[in-house]
Amino acid sequence: MLIDDKKEKQDEEFRKLISHSKKVLRITEEELWDTGKTLDSGAFGKIYKGEYRGHRVAIKCLNPKNRLSNYRELICLMECHCPNIVGIIGAGPSPAKKCLMFIVMEFARNSSLHHLRSARFDKRIGNPWQVEYAMSHAFLWFLHAANGLEYLHEHCDPPKIHRDIKPGNMLLFDDCRLLKLCDFGTARDEDVSLTSHQGAIRYMAPEVFEPGTNGKPNRYDRSVDIYSLCASFWEVFTRADYPRYYQPIEGCPMMVQKLLRRGLSKKVEQRPKIRDIVRFLEFVVKKISPLPPARCNLEFPPTELDEDESTVTVSANNFTEPN
Asked: What region holds the Protein kinase domain (predicted)?
């Protein structure tokens, strides 16, 4: 009976999502040009680099088996109007199959924060390609990610929980001066009872794994996103994988480390609210003064981008280390 009730609720949600999705710009496969370059892949499907009406775009080809989460992501992107959340251009629904075939989004020329922070050596071309960035760059990216999360937590109605915050879901634009959150397939409204394990294990808050009462899964709230955000930026500051317990960060201001330590607390009540994180980071970034642009260079392997895009310079004109 419980299984039947759950399926009935999912079917009802699916019908509502399909109805809502009719408002999005419909794009046909014939209107897209696929370059054949895969940007990412996973259980959701694959993301390709393509062109739409002369503009470079990211084409997210979706796995039809995940039809409910596919439509959830589409609706979430349609409803979010924030400069730090990736923009949607249109989608390709298949009315006959009652599924969503692809979502067309803006193209992140500078890849993801994961690729940037972990870029050390590319075996395919046999050459090292070090990506250098100052801690001050991380402060700006931290602020942008927090802005996007604040929009989800404070300005959506009902509030949304991303549930898969990590460096790989933070895209870089404008020569790495702008960061946007992406991948909303696991996002849910906060008024829904959340108990399932979602996201990358390394960034999951401890309460996601804890058993609930009477043998039921433990319920969690938006604070899981705070934990994931702070774990992500611990990695950006250190360029190491987060070890699941806090370690001091060499050269990082104590006030920033205090924020990260609170955000990574096992006690949910000790974690700061996203609005407080944003206000604090706004203060930090305002205290930052100019740096030479050459301080931070990002070079992609030629196999990933066209030859004319093989080198990207991250301009640091607007930020540097705080005094």
From this structure: 33-284
